UniProtKB/TrEMBL annotation:
This is Exocyst subunit Exo70 family protein. The lineage of its organism: Eukaryota, Viridiplantae, Streptophyta, Embryophyta, Tracheophyta. It comes from Nicotiana sylvestris. GO terms for biological process: exocytosis; protein transport. GO terms for cellular component: exocyst. InterPro entries: Cullin_repeat-like_dom_sf, Exo70, Exo70_C. Residues 238-600 form the Exocyst complex subunit Exo70 C-terminal domain.
Length: 634
């Protein structure tokens, strides 16, 4: 029996017509797996022309048959597993060829599906939608300990409530992103990552390029920029400023989120893919500010366009570093840094030209003692600069102030910001120095007045304008309260000097005769002299002006107290005596008359008092024609 039991299979193997090699159980099972996967895959073969598959060739698997789409992906994964088994464990080449053919059919189908999803869902893959969708679904559980069950329950409840509020757009966006990721994972796992990336890259790069075009961001050369009129370049600068925040925070950010999600299976693929999609457009975006900084016709009024460009990049820098963090995108960050450097150099050049132009201004002082156009222009310019204190501080932090002045350092190093959170003291010192340069220039212009009292009124008007501009702007925080107190005191000192010099004869007559008793002839002579002195002062100053209403009223009140109160004493004391002596005619003014005359003063009109005056501040190649303020397109 033992012999028969063992001899039967041996005999059978030598006499039978069966193959010389047995198929193992694992091989049989894997063959069935490949055949089952093939049945699913062939239903969606794009090359089959039979009537049963004609509809499937044009149908969208992931849109119209989502359940079958998941079955299809599962079949591809099983096919991939079967191919690995055949390669490692079996020598049946015909089975491997069959599996490879099926894989090619599947990959061709998935390429079509990815293209269809990307092309047909651009609205739902919009960068803003993607950014908002991903941020709204950020998990909060990771920051909470697993032991805090009560907190976890609260979070679960909040997440549940939040989920019910997700808009339909976000839901579709999430579904589309999930489909793209599933396709990418499947193709990368099957070794078809390059084909997947090619389709994705071409589609999304066209989205980025089109978006930049519609935002008005153009690819320009330095030669093209140099040939542009400033009006055209200024408009392109405005377009860039409107576009840069959207481009960085929404477009590039959204594309990176989408790319990271779809190709999360491979760090190298997601880096390569995002780099090829965004690099060219990002370089175009960040190269434009550098070309503006190199514009050969830069002049003073272009300072604020340069600062706007600098400020935009500076404010977005943290996002730029985060979005373009891959090594392959270092060139983008380098371009952004280069633009910042060149913009800073251009701003420093224009600031030097601005200071030099003030020092070399040769315009004459205004005849009426009002605010000089130079004062208006410079202060309006500095007010705008004060609004850029953040960018300004970065630009001048490594640019020490070179002072060539006979005045002590304490004069222009006096500003002390009211709080330590204000911009750096470098900005305060630089602005205080520019104000000092202006005031020194005004001192020189004041010396050209023949009437000393008018020179003091001129200085008071101009310094008061400077102080007023500082108080009403960001300069107040930058220059500090001590600076304001010191210069307010100087305005009062100038006014005091004006009153003393301009009304010296009138005021002196009160002091010299305030206590002594006068005879009628002496009183008569006093009134005659007073009439002459007052009329002369009034006639001389009738064309003088104090533009600021508050300062003007203050001067009138001060003069009224000194002139009218002194005159009233003599008027009430000697009016009856002179009338009884028959010399009434010498008392020409009642106190109220003097009040009326003083009220008429300081309203003189001069061309410099109106904002429509054209003024030119020029120095070498930099020139500005302005209506008392720098042109600024903000």
């Amino acid at each position: 029996m033992r012999t028969g039991f063992f001899s039967s299979p041996i005999h059978s193997s030598t006499t039978s017509n069966s193959p010389s090699r047995h198929t193992t159980f694992s091989e049989t099972l894997m063959e069935e797996t490949i055949n089952d996967a093939g049945a699913v895959i062939k239903r969606w073969d794009l090359d089959v022309s039979s009537s049963s598959s004609s509809y499937n060739r044009v149908a969208n698997l992931f849109r119209d048959y989502r359940d079958e789409a998941h079955q299809f992906l599962d079949a591809v994964n099983k096919l991939q597993h079967g191919m690995h088994f055949v390669i490692k464990e079996s020598s049946r080449s015909e089975l491997l060829i069959q599996a490879q053919n099926l894989m090619q059919i599947a990959m061709k189908r998935l390429q079509k599906e990815m293209y269809t999803i990307l092309s047909g869902n651009r609205y739902f893959l919009d960068s803003e939608t993607v950014s908002n969708s991903r941020s709204s679904r950020a998990s909060t559980r990771s920051s909470v300990s697993d032991e805090d069950d009560e907190i976890n329950e609260i979070i679960d409840a909040e997440v549940s409530v939040s989920s019910t509020r997700v808009s339909e757009i976000d839901k579709v966006s999430e579904r589309v992103m999930a489909d793209l990721k599933a396709i990418a994972d499947c193709m990368i796992g099957a070794g078809y990552g390059a084909e997947c990336v090619k389709i994705y890259k071409l589609n999304r790069k066209s989205v980025v390029d089109e978006t930049l075009y519609y935002l008005g961001v153009e690819k320009l050369t330095l030669s093209q920029v140099q040939k542009m009129d400033w009006s055209l370049l200024e408009q392109k600068t405005k377009n860039w400023l409107s576009a840069v925040k959207i481009t960085v925070s929404t477009l590039f950010q959204g594309e990176k989120i989408l790319c990271d999600h779809v190709f999360s299976a491979s760090d190298s693929i997601r880096e390569t893919c995002f780099s090829e999609i965004a690099k060219e457009s990002a370089l175009t975006l960040f190269a434009f500010p550098e070309m503006v900084a190199k514009y050969k016709k830069l002049s003073l009024e272009k300072m604020f366009s340069v600062l706007d460009l600098y400020n935009s990049i500076s404010e977005l820098w943290d996002e730029i570093e985060l979005i373009f963090s891959f090594n392959s995108l270092t060139v983008v960050k380098s371009q952004a840094v280069t633009s910042l450097v060149k913009l800073g150099e251009a701003a420093r050049f224009m600031l030097s030209e601005f200071e030099s132009a003030i020092q070399k201004d040769s315009s004459k002082a205004v005849a009426c003692g009002g605010v000089h156009p130079l004062t208006r222009y410079v202060m309006n310019y500095l007010v705008f600069l004060g609004d850029y204190s953040g960018a300004f501080s970065e630009i001048i932090v490594d640019w020490p102030l070179s002072i060539q002045s006979p005045l002590p350092e304490s004069y222009f190093l006096s500003p002390t910001p009211d709080d330590y959170d204000s911009p750096s003291s470098a900005v305060s010192v630089r602005l205080a120095w520019l104000v000092l340069v202006l005031l020194c220039k005004l001192d020189g212009k004041a010396q050209h007045y023949k009437d000393v009292s008018l020179s003091y009124l001129f200085l008071a008007n101009n310094l008061n304008y400077v102080v007023s501009k500082v108080k009403k702007s960001n300069l107040k925080l930058l220059l500090g309260s001590d600076w304001l107190l010191n210069h307010d005191a100087k305005v009062k000192q100038y006014i005091s000097n004006y009153e003393r010099m301009g009304w010296s004869k009138v005021l002196t007559s009160f002091l010299e005769n305030s206590t002594a008793e006068m005879s009628p002839p002496e009183a008569r002579d006093w009134f005659v002299t007073f009439n002459s002195d007052f009329e002369e002062a009034y006639r001389t100053q009738s064309s003088w002006v104090i533009p600021d209403p508050k300062l003007r009223d203050g001067v009138k009140i001060s003069l009224a107290k000194k002139v009218i109160s002194g005159y009233r004493t003599f008027y009430e004391k000697y009016r009856e005596i002179l009338r009884s002596g028959g010399v009434k005619s010498v008392v020409r003014f009642a106190p109220d008359d003097l009040q009326n005359y003083l009220s008429d003063l300081f309203h003189g009109t001069g061309s410099s008092e109106h904002g429509t005056t054209s003024y030119s501040l020029s120095h070498s190649s930099s020139s500005v024609s302005t209506s008392s303020s720098p042109s600024h397109g903000r």
